[in-house]
Amino acid sequence: QVQLVESGGGLVQAGGSLRLSCAASGGTFSSLTMGWFGQAPGKEREFVAAITRSGGWTYYPDSVKGRFTISRDNAKNTVYLQMNSLKPEDTAVYYCAATYSGYPPGRYDYWGQGTQVTVSS
Question: Could you tell me which residues come within 8 angstroms of residue 83 by beta carbon, excluding any fewer than 6 positions away?
């Protein structure tokens, strides 16, 4: 069973930056496809970024492309989400997710508890 714990959320002004971290345990991290999702109040959870097992490929929706960067350190069992040029509409709870499936996965099997990101205007 894979456990995921996010950290790094907080309150930031528009145009600012945050780096989220997600520490994984209980599994083989280097075999996991990792993703980040955001859920704004009253909205469905949305895909934000994903990274393949080796870190060689990354994927983003147009809404964050060029502003967010996903990366991973397989030696530290950690995936990161660097968020730059933040906008008020980026305000959401951000969840880390994992699956042993390759990319694109049919679903993510493991989820963290989420970390709140609030961007003020």
Answer: 17, 18, 19, 20, 64, 67, 68, 90, 117
CA distance readout (Å), 103 to 42, 84, 98, 115: 28, 25, 11, 24
Tokens of 96: 């880390």
Residue type, 67: R
Task: Provide block-wise average pLDDT over 10 residues at a time, the chain (121 residues).
Answer: 97 98 96 97 96 95 97 98 98 98 90 98 93
Give 19's strand partners. 82
Taking alpha carbons only, the member of 110, 48, 116, 109 closest to residue 82 is 48
Helices (H), the chain: none
